[in-house]
């Protein structure tokens, strides 16, 4: 197993089935979610009051229409008609204002709440130790921070408050209808039960259909993404035809799933309309007869037709809310699960504060495994004095990178002790520990930011001069200044291509700017051009100056500059000594040396 | 509409279904519009105290018409919307077909994300126009005609007043819709920035932690989140405005109709039933009115999307398959001789030459090593062989025949290529190694895996060759990926094997073992090895040294050392310089 991937088999966790939906309401989760509304509790109350206002204003209008017809039109009273029209107009305008305030307010509350939640989650994820990141693919964590939180936004802004709104509207309609005629109400609303059934049935079917649509869409996008990224491979192996064939079959599945959801919609909408028509028919038949008997007025009939139309919308809305709540519960479950997880490595209760260390390092009988019992370091002991330069060499998988990871306390060891200046690193505050260490890893990582920010990593303590100095010492200043925007050039901008060597030099400048007492350098294996090579050699010399340096060396030139070479093999230290001593010893090191450089010995 | 016209052939393919769709949409609208008419008659009957039996009739008619309208509505969706899905499917297939034939050059200028956006967002926009767009346009036009003519039959003046605000409402919807789209795009943009930031932070978590940058990272994430929130709120402002605005406008016209109609009733010019019908018609018209503005937006977006898609459809690749000159099935057996004759090459007419006057003849069966500094043209040289790029100056012959006349498929299937940047599919290891084969036998896969020294690694995975790669499975190390990629190149017994810096993440032990194995299977076949490491190349039949796009030196390792040129220089720089210092 190669050293650079301690992760390998990613654990399939329960989150994989993102689509499995459960309850629409879980009091335990809901309580936790409501907590996030607390800072805005007053506004929430106002929002709820506004929804009551909207419900009242919107449901009173058909009643006013009824009054207009029965009291003024039938009685031929133009003045009364005008007055009631003004009142109607007033309620309309007023409802518009209240509705606007309510919608915006709920959006505002939702946005604020999820902002808080997102920041909390982001901060929390930052605290996890490396073994967490080994097991959890970045993509999944990003989904938590983005999509899952977004789902909650929907719940906060259009879920909770809007549920109240719908309930109030239904209550308002029922109130007015019952006031006008309870018998007609019961008859007109007898269709509600089939409507609710139809809606639930439809939602269920459509949800499954949409799940399929999303599944195939994701599959199609993944396919597309992968084959466009790997277009070179597709072309070189002459696989355009089979690629297209495979795509067509996924696309056909996607279309099929879409058609299925179209089918449900084509059934659902006519059914809803039919149910509405049945209600209208019942009002005409029963209400009409009652009107003929003189029990009901024409105005009541007209207002009932309006009410029964109004009634169906909140019911349909509520079923939609059910879905929102259901996905929100699933998302919040995932989010809270992540939040409840404690970082595997945390500071001791009273951590030692370490301002500036000297740089003495000691490993004492260290045993370490990334995954249970699969030891990559076995009983490792060594001692590095302040200012000493030590090279670690060995084949891939020998355990060199693990030493580096452990010294930064990215992982905790199973047995033994790691000491810095005689202090166990477990007792030192993590931030203090790492502040004293400059780490340059093999896989170069640059942020899509300016070069100067990539050197300082937005640390205000690192002055502009320090950035310039570091670049100069490393020898990359000339190159940077030649860029169109110099130090402000974004490294990932299209058109700017930094070579591997240049990228590496930037990470060197970064380490130098932080001026650590201990330098850990994993030399990049990928070869660079000779010019960069020379620059890199020089830069490494500069970097090591006056620091305790631990280097995972791939270059002979670097190795030779070290005070001591530690040869690792299969998780154990097999040889220690200087270049000459080890060559003479004729062990693993001399073999490695000969294989890589044997021409020079011929 | 210039670009949307290009959809004609697609529409023509489904014209029968579409014609049926428009017929049923008409029927559906007719029955929907009859319902208020029935209700108005019923109410007038009630007021005039007619006999009882008639009410059953009206109630039954209401339900009956709704049922009929529903049946036709069902068929409308099953035709027009289904057709839009069919066309979406066709369009997407055609899109990929065009993407796949694009030259390699195209992908240099079009990031994957852009191509993805075309395939998803733009095709969806076109689909929305074809489905809901066409359906609602049809429905709106028919509803308008029917409702308005029925309203006119009741009262002309009132109809005019009721219809007057319609253009205004449509316009407002259109403007609001446009503003919402714009703001929504800003939100989406910011969302992707936020995602990128999270992605980047987590990918670089080691650096973040090592340099104790957690707080400043949170700070910049907070800035982006705040910006995202503000953009969302700005969208919310318009969105919250849109609904009240619409019901205000439609509500006004209802109230005006109610008022004027009420007065007309008082004057005996109108019946209460007719007024009720008017109000129901206005309700029926609300959606078409709103959808009018919405359709305009839809069409505009679809037009813009179609324009972007047409650019892809119209982009003709330069590299096309040769006319089958060899006769027969257009296939050609390739032996493996490669000859560059006076080749000059650059990636664009405004770009500098990458290869200059290259003359190189590689005999079938020869092993050639290529070395040179970064940017000296090594990768370009080998990219020309499978015609990833075409030459305009000079020529390249395969087995004595101009490469442009060799059938592309024969050419490429004869070449085993390990690109500099390793790329594996998120599929099983077996399928990755056997990628070039349509049907494969396991023994060949195992053999290739053994030669490329990946077999032991694979064997240690619980699912062995069935192990999935990528997010859902295993993440291979850089070296493992390279070795898998080598296995993929050799599984098909290529006549020509090209390894472009294929050992950069493989340690020297393993490299030696792979090269040893390759020597066996590449007997009599052509091999081109590109490397920075002398150790990789030293046993080649011939080594070519490139400098600034020109062949500077050629010869065997020993000869080149003796020449004391660039090669010797690289060699000594790599191997001796530092060691000499030590001595």
Biggest beta sheet attributes of chain A: 6 strands, mixed
Structural class of chain B: alpha/beta
Q: Considering the protein shown, what is the CATH homologous superfamily of the largest domain in chain A? A: P-loop containing nucleotide triphosphate hydrolases
By CATH reckoning, the class of the largest domain in chain B would read: Mainly Alpha
Low-confidence stretches of chain A: 1-19, 597-602
Topology:
The complex is a heterodimer of chains A (602) and B (583).
Chain A (H helix, E strand, L loop, with lengths): L26 H9 L5 H33 L4 H49 L3 H6 L2 H43 L1 H7 L3 H38 L1 H6 L3 H54 L4 H43 L20 E9 L5 E10 L4 E5 L6 H8 L7 E6 L2 E2 L5 H6 L1 E4 L10 H6 L7 H11 L2 H6 L17 H15 L3 E5 L7 H15 L3 E5 L3 H6 L2 E6 L2 E6 L1 H7 L2 H10 L5
Parallel strand pairs in A: 3-8, 3-9, 6-7, 7-8
Antiparallel strand pairs in A: 1-2, 1-4, 4-5, 9-10
Chain B lengths: L7 H6 L1 H33 L5 H49 L2 H6 L2 H43 L1 H8 L2 H38 L1 H6 L3 H53 L5 H43 L23 E8 L9 E8 L4 E6 L5 H6 L9 E6 L2 E2 L5 H6 L1 E4 L10 H5 L8 H10 L3 H6 L17 H13 L5 E5 L7 H14 L4 E5 L3 H4 L4 E6 L2 E6 L1 H7 L2 H10 L1 H6 L1
Parallel strand pairs in B: 3-8, 3-9, 6-7, 7-8
Antiparallel strand pairs in B: 1-2, 1-4, 4-5, 9-10
Helix pairs in contact in B: 2-3, 2-5, 2-10, 3-5, 5-6, 5-10, 6-9, 7-9, 7-10, 9-10, 14-16, 19-20
